Amino acid sequence: MTTAQQGLTRAELARRVADDLVDGWCVNVGIGVPLLLPEQATPGREIVYHCEHGLLGVGPAPQGAPDPDVTDAGKNPVTLVEGAASFDSSLSFAIARGGRLDLCVLGALQVGENGDLANWLVPGGNPGVGGAMDLVAGARRVWVMMTHLDKQGRPKLRKRCSFPLTGPGVVDRVYTDLAVFEFVDGVLTLRECAPGVTPERIAALTEAAYSVDLRGESI
Amino acid sequence: MIDKIRPGAVDCLTGIRSGSSVAIGGFGQTGVPLDLIDALCDRDVRGLHIIANNGGRGLPGERGIGRLLKENRVRRLSCSFPVNPDFFRRYFAGDVEIELVPQGTLAERLRAGGSGLGGFYTPTAAGTMLADGRFVVRYGEGGVVRETLAQKESRVIDGRTYVLESPLRPDFALVKAHLADRYGNLRFRLGARNFNPLAAMAAGCTIVQADHIAHDGSLPPDDIHLPGPFVDHVVETAGETVR
């Protein structure tokens, strides 16, 4: 029997993604598991986290009393770090569309083997898009953090997305609880399996076609 | 003499009638002009077109946009992230309309409206359901589709597809500021700025609740985030974020 529980926990997945962030990057983190990234400081690296309603320099959750005017994209209380800035939502999306975000990290419902991303609507469900379409249209890199399988146990990495798209061909990397994939010259490529997870298991749990190149180091 | 400071919210809101369009600042519950919304709910207005990023969460006793929705005062909500379960139920039943707008596009449509622009081209939403005419704004009985978002004009600029977005020019804006003066100059606080200056710019009549008013003078010129000509009325409130 195959289950997804043997892979990384949410915190471990956040740690794995944080390991690949580059010193000095400006990074937007979306609702869901990406919001754990500001909790994952890496010694020697300064990452400037962007919050799309109008903050740069977002840090971890506060130890003391929260400031109601300092929240992340999920409306959770956070802190501001040295170098932080505040601005309106128009300027904030100018940062995104204007190419000043080195990276945005989002959750996903489905990712296609062509790099399509679907993360805002299950057909028939409640619609809500937030800033996802703006971010994937503008950020220099788009990474997805997600469970490898959906709640029904179906692969989220698919030949084509069946759910409405957030953006066509926008995804650069996919980090799941079981594996790391990267689009290399437009080809979905398996880069890494989580500890204890075999490539054969990934193959059994992935609908998308992909190449395998496990030698590749990050970035 | 210029003096935009008003003694209470009620008198500022008398122009808002059933069917008015009203942009409201805030992101989640941050920077939402809760006192102005409460005062609006004291009036008999229905069928509003609300332009705001969120739709509240539908929690018991909730203030803000969620209260407007719960009291069935909203006909149409232009937003990026509605969330509110009760509002979704009424959307699928055909009682209310949702114009779903990507968050950055919503901000820029307000800014364009307030800047006298006829619109703008953005790559956001190109190649998606929010640009191709398939997103349902209004259902009829039995799930029949009554209205969809219009298919957006697109244009290839420097090899990339952009879609044309229209400006928003709401009748009114309800805005929360941190500091204000009698000229209507505003300063916001941290993440509470969000959509507030953009809503203020876009509206025909902008009503502001400020945590504090500089009663003895004015704000220093370099400290002003939005200058007074965009503002019509200012009311001082208790200040939920006083510090």
TrEMBL record, chain A:
UniProt keyword annotations, A-Z: Transferase
GO molecular function ontology, one term from the record: CoA-transferase activity
InterPro entries linked: 3-oxoacid_CoA-transf_B (IPR012791), CoA_trans_fam_I (IPR004165), NagB/RpiA_transferase-like (IPR037171)
Transferase recorded as keyword: yes
Pfam families tied to this protein: CoA_trans
Keyword Signal carried by entry: no
Superkingdom of source: Bacteria
Family: Belongs to the 3-oxoacid CoA-transferase subunit B family.
Protein name: 3-oxoacid CoA-transferase subunit B/3-oxoadipate CoA-transferase, beta subunit
Organism: Actinacidiphila glaucinigra
UniProtKB/TrEMBL annotation, chain B:
InterPro entries reported in the protein's UniProt record: 3-oxoacid_CoA-transf_A, CoA_trans_fam_I, NagB/RpiA_transferase-like
Pfam families in the cross-refs: CoA_trans (PF01144)
Domain of life: Bacteria
Entry annotated with the keyword Ribosomal protein: no
Keyword tags: Transferase
GO MF annotations in UniProt: CoA-transferase activity
Protein name (Swiss-Prot/TrEMBL): 3-oxoadipate CoA-transferase alpha subunit
Organism: Actinacidiphila glaucinigra
Organismal lineage: Bacteria, Bacillati, Actinomycetota, Actinomycetes, Kitasatosporales
